[in-house]
User: Which sequence fits this backbone?
């Protein structure tokens, strides 16, 4: 049996392999071939040289990032924000999905679901503009209300401490409607007989949710969190840039790798340096996901990503 | 389990190797393709420069199609205007031109890709703010020799001042035909004349009188922000800095990405850090006073509103910008909001006036253009043939514009269909017409400046950042993070703020950049 | 559970009606309605601001900021957007075409790939999963991608380039794989004994059982196509192939970009465009059709499985 090895297996799985073929070819062509471009991170790009003919320049392209003195800070910010987003957004998404599933009115369910989805469609540019209208010190709505109540106005754009909370809230606001659909689908897929059996056993609704619904969501939670972890070192540029912009006073607590790199390279447009930053994020993400996947694997082999 | 793992790894390794091989193959093709298409230009360029000695006539017997890349949205009447242009070109140089427009929304992403993919095009808009130096150093443009210019662009060669050519050189080589437009870069302020009169304030012509105006407005006019800045744009060296610090002290920042300056009258060209001067500290005190008096919004660094629109709406009382722009604002306000009176003021009237560097706009030829001669001839016509210049700049007479004499125009009935903003500024020249509604006082100011234009030895020097790219990138970041909030008076302890800023700049490598720039300047001056 | 999997329409409904009248249920429902109402309100208000601003006169926005109810109504922004209605309709057409085609093919290919990876008896599934996942971590960046599409595949200015890049998404493949792993193996086993091939099991058994996740991923794929402007930005210069979002994006970006560039180049800046209200009107124009279609799509994942009753 063992001696047949690879070819024997290939024959055995021929249909499955054929079904995989479109995907494999697609990623070969559109992902792995252009991936050779990672070498640009180590090159001084010129037009006549192109990707492979340009001269090597060692780690020069990485210097702008690591010599800046901000490398650690922005890397830490990126990871911390993403961890917060993953936790808060997933918890809220699960909660919303359960609520949507449990409420009796079919019509209400649709209306709520539609309303929750609305923020997804509002682009970050528009969100940034609305935020400025709300938070602005002189004319913002929030301060108008506070002043109306005889309270001290708050200077949100000059106070770094507000921002981590603010950004987590905005991120959740935008993502939860979209994300809860995934969980709603998972709950819909749970066998109704389990609920009926629980009901007969006299379980109350809290017990039903904590003993049936949530355990049945574990596979979905694990996969979504694992997938998010691979991108933990990539900041949501659209969000950070449109919310914080070029406000240096807030950078200590709001600057992420992507915004930092954008600002650094805006006046030079250097291909090698932006490749270098991307490579750095990839390597960190790769290590993190390997560790996370290993952890999940040792807990339950079937739930791991690979 | 073990076996499974091993075969998975094997498979992956196989996949990776395959992809690398494939990529390597394709790269081989890439180079082959690159050289193949590069060949004709390499052979034609030298022949172009060697030809003049043999004969003076340019051979245009073969009809060619040229492709030009411009920035901006495609105008509605593009077909009409460029159809007309092609008739003229066919006749004059036996060529036609087709334009590809790179939208303002994304040109800076697509522009380098066009070069990287070596797409086929002949002419392209370029400018110092559109990465001219960088593209030149990367080999994107064809070098233009004197012989070529004399032979294929004789009118331009004759009309362009030598200093403009010199300013466009990168490491001693020329890669663009710059625009030929006398312009002064000095910044002025636009303010509300009616408010000044309401409070009986003296004429605005100095830092003090301007501060007086701003503070008075801030104190007495509720709901009006005295000074409008759009700092969220991320301009590091902004208009007010220029109007105050630079103009009043006759400093000149060499490259606006780094805070290094020279004194205009310093023949030795000694470079210094502008943030490390007593003059900057004075400026900060000036700014802090304005900030503390509520002259600008506390959230100025997040302001994304269009300042001029805010001014028109009566929410902002002043801003700084170049003369041409505020003059256009003035004309617009006189038409649309006659109840508000605006005026222009120069708050550094005794300063030396500086001519704009020629590379603010220009046209270049793609390094692999198949028809560089004809492309150059086209640039010559665009810039210096009255008929073609008028057509491409203003559209069709009687439809898009009405000519008023030789040098003025008014908007025609279809003006919106062939608008400005497609970077036809690349061939600005002395043939440009002026909008007839352009305010007279702006012209007066300009005429007054013309006589004061100051030429200094480093006028044609351009900083080459190739050795200090990382440092320049980091310095930009430090200025946004530590410099801009400090200038807008958002940091309570100014002295500590300056110390922080300088310390951070040092950490970012300002000393290295300064040394590099100084040695370039020394070499530049020694060569003159 | 494993062999007797029965799923019915409106699982929530069934549970709901059975539990009606019980105190804990009522309390929970009250809390759920309350929280959902509050959260929905927070989602609705900004949207109303956008809608209202899109209908407000530009000068009024500049003067008063965004308001829930417009003070000075103006449809200027919309008339500017629809200035060239045939362009706009064409853009809608391209987007609808791309979305329909892309979603159909994308969903088929995604689910087929996911099914293979979910098969526990397929020895190389982890290897292939990794092969796919790896591409989300490393990429060669823009330049090689652009070179590949333009110089080697010659897909510039083709309809295909709007569809191809979003056809597969690793995240969707892996999410779907995880859902499909939850389907009892016994179903496939029994079919196999009956002589069904792998493809038949996938298309006849697994697909019907995966309806909720198919609807969800289908929606996500469709939204991805609907909102994509990046590929069009890079590869489309032909006006006839311009999708809606790119058309809108260009309009706004051109104004902001032009203003900046004009200042940098020393050109005279003299533009009068209602950019604030325009920004808002664009949001409405882009969402409109989806909001109309959404309630119809919703039925798929609210109802869940209807015909999946398979007894082992």
Assistant:
């Amino acid at each position: 049996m063992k001696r047949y090895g690879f070819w024997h297996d290939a024959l055995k799985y021929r249909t499955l392999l054929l079904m995989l073929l479109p995907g494999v070819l697609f990623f070969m062509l559109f992902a792995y071939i252009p991936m050779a471009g990672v070498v640009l991170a180590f090159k001084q790009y010129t037009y006549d040289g192109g990707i492979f003919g340009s001269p090597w320049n060692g780690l020069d392209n990485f210097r702008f990032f690591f010599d800046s003195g901000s490398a650690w800070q922005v890397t830490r910010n990126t990871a911390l924000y993403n961890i917060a987003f993953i936790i808060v957004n997933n918890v809220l998404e699960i909660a919303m999905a359960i609520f949507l599933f449990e409420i009796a009115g079919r019509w209400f369910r649709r209306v709520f679901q539609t309303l929750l989805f609305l923020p997804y469609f509002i682009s970050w540019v528009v969100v940034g503009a609305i935020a400025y209208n709300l938070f602005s010190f002189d004319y913002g709505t929030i301060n108008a209300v506070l002043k109306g109540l005889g309270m001290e106005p708050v200077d949100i754009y000059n106070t770094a401490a507000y921002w981590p909370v603010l950004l987590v809230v905005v991120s959740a606001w935008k993502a939860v409607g979209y994300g809860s659909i995934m969980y709603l689908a998972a709950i819909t897929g749970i066998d109704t007989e389990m609920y009926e059996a629980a009901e007969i056993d006299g379980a109350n609704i809290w017990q039903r949710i904590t003993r049936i619904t949530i355990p049945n969501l574990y596979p979905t939670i694990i996969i979504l969190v694992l997938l998010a972890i691979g991108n933990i070192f990539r900041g949501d540029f659209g969000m950070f840039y449109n919310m914080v912009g070029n406000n240096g006073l807030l950078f200590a607590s709001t600057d992420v790798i992507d915004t930092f790199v954008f600002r650094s390279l805006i006046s030079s447009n250097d291909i090698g340096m932006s490749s270098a930053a991307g490579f750095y994020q990839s390597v960190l993400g790769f290590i993190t996901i390997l560790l996370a996947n290993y952890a999940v694997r040792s807990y339950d082999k079937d739930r791991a990503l690979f | 389990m073990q076996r499974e793992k091993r075969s998975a790894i094997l498979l992956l390794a196989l996949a990776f190797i395959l992809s690398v091989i494939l990529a390597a193959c394709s790269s081989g093709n890439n180079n082959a393709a690159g050289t193949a298409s590069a060949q004709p230009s390499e052979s034609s360029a030298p022949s172009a420069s060697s030809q003049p000695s043999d004969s003076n006539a340019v051979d245009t017997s073969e009809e060619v199609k040229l492709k030009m890349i411009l920035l901006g949205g495609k105008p509605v009447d593009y077909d009409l205007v460029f159809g007309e242009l092609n008739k003229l070109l066919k006749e004059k140089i036996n060529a036609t031109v087709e334009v590809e427009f790179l939208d303002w929304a994304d040109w800076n992403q697509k522009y380098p890709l066009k070069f990287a993919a070596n797409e086929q095009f002949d002419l392209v808009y370029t400018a110092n703010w559109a990465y001219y130096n960088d593209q030149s150093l990367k080999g994107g443009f064809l070098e233009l020799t004197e012989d070529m210019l004399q032979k294929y662009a004789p009118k331009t060669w004759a009309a362009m001042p030598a200093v403009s050519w010199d300013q466009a050189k990168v490491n001693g080589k020329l890669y663009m035909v710059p625009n030929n437009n006398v312009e002064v870069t000095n910044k002025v302020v636009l303010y509300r004349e009616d408010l000044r009169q309401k409070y009986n304030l003296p004429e605005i012509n100095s830092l003090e009188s301007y501060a007086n105006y701003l503070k008075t407005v801030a104190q007495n006019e509720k709901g009006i922000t005295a000074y409008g800045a759009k700092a969220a744009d991320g301009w590091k060296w902004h208009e007010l800095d220029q109007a105050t610090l630079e103009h009043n002290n006759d400093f000149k920042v060499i490259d606006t990405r780094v805070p290094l300056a020279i004194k205009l009258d310093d023949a030795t060209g000694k470079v210094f850090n502008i943030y490390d001067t007593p003059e900057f500290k004075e400026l900060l005190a000036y700014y802090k006073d304005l900030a503390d008096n509520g002259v600008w919004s506390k959230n100025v660094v997040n302001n994304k509103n269009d300042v001029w629109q805010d001014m028109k709406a009566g929410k902002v009382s002043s801003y700084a910008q170049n003369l041409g722009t505020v003059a256009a604002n003035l004309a617009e306000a006189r038409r649309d909001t006659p109840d508000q009176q605006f005026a222009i003021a120069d708050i550094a009237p005794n300063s030396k006036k500086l001519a704009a560097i020629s590379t603010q706009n220009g046209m270049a030829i793609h390094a692999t253009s198949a028809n560089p001669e004809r492309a150059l001839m086209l640039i010559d016509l665009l810039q210096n043939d009255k008929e073609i210049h008028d057509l491409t700049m203003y559209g069709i007479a009687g439809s898009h514009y009405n000519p008023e004499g030789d040098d003025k125009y008014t908007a025609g009935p279809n003006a919106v269909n062939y608008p400005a903003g497609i970077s036809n500024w690349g061939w600005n020249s002395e043939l440009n017409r002026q909008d007839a509604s352009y305010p007279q006082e702006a012209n007066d100011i300009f005429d007054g400046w013309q006589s004061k234009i100051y030429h200094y030895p480093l006028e044609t020097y351009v900083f080459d950042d190739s050795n200090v790219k990382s440092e320049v990138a980091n310095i930009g970041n430090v200025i946004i993070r530590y410099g801009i909030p400090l200038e807008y008076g958002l940091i309570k302890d100014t002295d500590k703020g300056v110390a922080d800023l300088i310390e951070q700049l040092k950490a970012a490598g300002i000393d290295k950049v300064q040394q590099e720039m100084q040695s370039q300047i020394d070499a530049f001056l020694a060569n003159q | 559970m494993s062999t007797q999997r029965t799923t019915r329409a409106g699982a929530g409904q069934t549970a709901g009606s059975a539990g009606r009248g019980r105190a804990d249920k009522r309390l929970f429902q009250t809390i759920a309605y309350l929280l959902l109402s509050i959260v929905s309100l927070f989602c609705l208000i900004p949207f109303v601001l956008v809608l209202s601003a899109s209908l407000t006169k530009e000068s009024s926005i500049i003067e008063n900021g965004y308001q829930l109810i417009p003070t000075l109504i103006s449809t200027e922004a919309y008339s500017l957007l629809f200035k060239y209605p045939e362009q706009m309709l064409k853009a809608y057409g391209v987007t609808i075409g791309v979305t329909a085609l892309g979603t159909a093919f994308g969903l088929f290919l995604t689910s087929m790939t996911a099914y293979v990876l979910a098969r526990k008896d397929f020895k190389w599934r982890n290897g292939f999963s990794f092969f796919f996942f790896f591409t989300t971590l490393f990429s060669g960046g823009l330049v090689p991608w652009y070179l590949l599409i333009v110089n080697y595949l010659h897909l510039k200015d083709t309809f295909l380039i709007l569809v191809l890049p979003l056809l597969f998404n690793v995240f969707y493949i892996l999410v779907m794989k995880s859902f499909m792993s939850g389907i009892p193996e016994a179903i496939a086993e029994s079919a196999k004994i009956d002589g069904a091939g792998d493809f038949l099991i996938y298309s006849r058994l697994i697909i019907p059982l995966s309806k909720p996740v198919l609807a969800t991923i289908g929606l996500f794929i469709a939204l991805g196509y609907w909102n994509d402007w990046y590929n069009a930005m890079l590869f489309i210069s032909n006006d006839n192939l311009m999708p809606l979002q790119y058309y809108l994006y260009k309009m706004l970006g051109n104004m902001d970009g032009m203003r900046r560039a004009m200042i940098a180049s020393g050109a005279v800046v003299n533009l009068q465009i209602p950019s604030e209200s325009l920004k808002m009107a664009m949001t409405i124009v882009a969402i409109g059709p989806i909001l109309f279609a959404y309630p119809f799509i919703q039925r798929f994942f609210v109802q869940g499985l209807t015909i999946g009753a398979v007894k082992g």
About this structure: The longest helix of chain A spans residues 71-102. Chain A has one domain: 70-303.
